[in-house]
């Protein structure tokens, strides 16, 4: 009876078919909304040392394979004191210490191993300059925290979160690190990286004042530019969209304030970064997502940046962009993370981030997913991650779909999609959101379609008709169809069908790995466009995501 899942799926499919509703989507293959920016290609995690472990290296390889050399990884604790032993919301590199006379001792071995793991797998560093080494902290004790998923969040803010006792030593440490990176990896390589100071300095991650953070940032950025004048620098990776008035104050400081390191006016700002999170909760025993909260954070931050005409072309990276805030936390409201709620939320939210940037007239370059993997934890433990014990989750397959899209973004109209302003204001609480994102790259068109609702409940299937206008006339078109849903590209439902084993056999692991790959359905057909239009249909279940790839000679 452990394999009852296919029967259950067939029952749900029959119910959905009886209640299915029609959706019409029109894709203009001859139009253009400008280049489709691959904003999906940024990832991150609290725990830096997982990158050098077996499952971490394997996952880095999966990420880098999607767009080699153009995927970036941001992590906390790159400067934290310790021996490199990871734990939840903790990591360390031990890069800085002092001798008995207070003279600096630098050690790059652990941090080099982390960056080596990235680069060997086609991933580049988004360098977070933090946190404070124990020997530099104005309040070093207690330093190491021992946080658990059910602990109070404030328990993590220990000695690493405080300002330096000596800003000159802080700047010199950052300079020596950046200089070492240039010497080890080469100037051309390091010029591709992002460098930013700290994390969420407007909340507990920074135990100093705002002015002290600006000082910290000025010295860090000056240090990086001393080592590499053309380095890409920015910030402030503030929490909560604009973080009240913090983002604007930071922008004003960088544009017209006195630089604490140089005494001159202004601090270099090659990119602007902030964080935006959703707000899931439990309602009547089910998870209800809060996509509106995340999109509002983004919109408010974009609005602040758009006030400055000189910044409209400045790249923006949403340095953490997720359905909620704590990857290593657990709880009933976080039960969406293993299955198709997470994957469908991701598919529905990323195009809206692009739409908000277009609405505000700003330059969105990236939206960083703060999710990686956790070593030595139970299978599907409820953390926000892309993989569990080497088994990729459904959400990773949506990123694989994104990676297959390139070229010009095409105009799309869907009578099943909710208006942008409605989602930002209220989320997806009444009828579902069935929309599409499309792109054209030469003789190739990609169409991503999603079926999303904030409530994690079964719902009617969408009978979707896609009409492609402006398609090449008289040419045979091949269509490949990829799908993520309850039955496809889904290791979680396979694991449940096995009886949720915490010690799967070798054969079961092989089966789970196969289930974690992106599935290509067998319904691909050759089409011939007539009169400049081609139509095809698909049945898309609730929380399903499809990608159609159309190619012709």
UniProtKB/TrEMBL annotation:
UniProt cross-references to InterPro entries, sorted A to Z: GH, GH39_cat, Glyco_hydro_39, Glycosyl_Hydrolase_39
Q: Which UniProt keywords apply?
A: Glycosidase, Hydrolase
Q: Where is the Glycosyl hydrolases family 39 N-terminal catalytic domain?
A: 24-518
Q: Which SUPFAM superfamilies match?
A: (Trans)glycosidases (SSF51445), Glycosyl hydrolase domain (SSF51011)
Q: Record's superkingdom?
A: Bacteria
Question: Which PANTHER family does UniProt cross-reference here?
Answer: ALPHA-L-IDURONIDASE
**Family membership:** Belongs to the glycosyl hydrolase 39 family.
Which protein are we looking at? Xylan1,4-beta-xylosidase
């Amino acid at each position: 009876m452990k394999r009852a899942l296919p029967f259950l799926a067939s029952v749900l499919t029959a119910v959905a078919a009886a209640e299915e509703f029609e959706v019409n989507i029109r894709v203009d293959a001859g139009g253009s909304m400008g280049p489709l920016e691959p904003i999906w290609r940024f990832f991150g995690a609290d725990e830096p040392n997982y990158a050098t472990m077996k499952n971490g290296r394997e996952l880095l390889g999966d990420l880098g394979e999607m767009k080699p050399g153009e995927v970036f990884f941001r992590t906390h604790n790159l400067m934290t004191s310790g021996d490199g032993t990871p734990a939840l919301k903790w990591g360390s590199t031990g890069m800085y210490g002092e001798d008995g006379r207070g003279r600096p001792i630098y050690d790059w071995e652990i941090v080099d191993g982390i960056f080596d793991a990235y680069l060997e797998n086609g991933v580049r560093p988004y360098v977070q300059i933090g946190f404070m080494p124990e020997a530099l902290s104005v309040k070093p004790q207690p330093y190491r925290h021992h946080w658990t998923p059910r602990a109070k969040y404030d328990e993590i803010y220990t000695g690493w979160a405080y300002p330096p006792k000596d800003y000159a030593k802080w700047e010199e440490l950052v300079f020596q690190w950046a200089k070492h990176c240039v010497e080890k990896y080469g100037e051309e390589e390091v010029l591709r990286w992002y460098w930013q100071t700290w994390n969420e300095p407007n909340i507990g991650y920074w135990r100093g004042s705002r002015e002290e953070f600006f000082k910290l940032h000025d010295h860090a950025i000056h240090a990086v530019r001393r080592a590499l004048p053309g380095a890409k620098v920015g910030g402030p990776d503030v929490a909560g969209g604009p973080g009240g008035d913090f983002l604007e104050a930071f922008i004003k400081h960088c544009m017209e304030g006195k630089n604490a390191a140089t005494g001159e006016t202004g601090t270099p700002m090659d990119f602007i970064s902030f964080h935006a999170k959703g707000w899931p909760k439990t309602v009547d025993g089910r998870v209800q997502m809060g996509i509106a909260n995340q999109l509002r954070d983004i919109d408010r931050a974009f609005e602040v940046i758009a006030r400055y005409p000189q910044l409209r072309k400045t790249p923006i990276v949403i340095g953490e962009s997720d359905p909620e805030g704590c990857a290593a936390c657990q709880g009933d409201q976080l039960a969406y993370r293993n299955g198709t709620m997470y994957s469908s939320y991701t598919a529905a939210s990323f195009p809206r981030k692009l739409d908000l940037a277009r609405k505000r007239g700003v330059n969105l370059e990236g939206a960083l997913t703060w999710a990686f993997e956790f070593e030595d934890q139970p299978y599907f433990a409820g953390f926000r991650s892309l993989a569990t014990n080497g088994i990729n989750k459904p959400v990773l397959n949506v990123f694989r779909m994104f990676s297959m899209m390139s070229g010009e973004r095409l105009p799309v109209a869907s009578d099943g999609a909710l208006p942008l302003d409605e989602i930002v204001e209220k989320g997806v609480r009444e009828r579902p959101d069935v929309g599409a994102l499309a792109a054209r790259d030469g003789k190739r068109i990609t169409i991503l379609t999603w079926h999303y609702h904030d409530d994690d409940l079964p719902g009617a299937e969408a009978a979707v008709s896609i009409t492609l206008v402006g398609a090449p006339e008289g040419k045979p078109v091949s269509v490949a169809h990829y799908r993520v849903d309850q039955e496809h590209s889904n290791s979680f439902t396979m694991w449940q069908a096995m009886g949720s084993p915490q010690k799967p056999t070798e054969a079961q692991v092989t089966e789970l790995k196969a289930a974690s790959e992106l599935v290509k359905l067998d319904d691909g057909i050759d089409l011939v466009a007539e009169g400049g239009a081609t139509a095809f249909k698909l049945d898309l279940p609730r929380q399903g995501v499809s990608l159609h790839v159309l190619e012709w000679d």
